[in-house]
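Protein modeling request. Please complete all fields; requests missing the sequence field cannot be processed.
Requester role: graduate student
Desired output: 3D structure, token encoding
Chains: 1
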Amino acid sequence: MCCPFGSSSIPIVEMTSFADKDSAVMSNGEDGPSLAQQAAQQAKGLMGKIAAPIKELEKERARDKKLDELKAGAMMQLLPDGKQRQSLTVKVAVSPDGAMVTWAGTGVSGVMALAAIREVKPIMKSGIVFVSEPTIIPNQFKLIAEDQAVGFEAKDEEVKEKWMSTLQEWLRSSRAGKSRT
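Delivered output (181 residues):
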């Protein structure tokens, strides 16, 4: 029998908390992250995976809300093309099902599928007369599809930016969705 303060063949175990050290000795004797740190990292990764669909859903809802604002429509000028000689006042809107951009005014109407739109961009002032770099014409933008292009002039830059940014965001998200499938 051994006395309490004498020598013993049984090793003394030292207790340390996980918070005291950044790395602890692993069971095989190598330095590395402790089991608690590994568990925390795995939990963090798992929470990120769980939260990703929620974040994507929130982004989708924000895009849908912006698109809903465009469904209400806005009065704009339909810019002249090869068929018409002057700009006409039209109401531009996204269709209720969110599949088309429509415009209608006195004696004129049109439609362009959102899925067919390749580009949404501002209209640039350029030509032979202008030697300097092209500049953006205020309030004007165009929708470009494979078989048609249509230009609009919004009442102000705020309306133009709202329409352009919402449609561009919709295009990016729809293309990203196609590449995932």
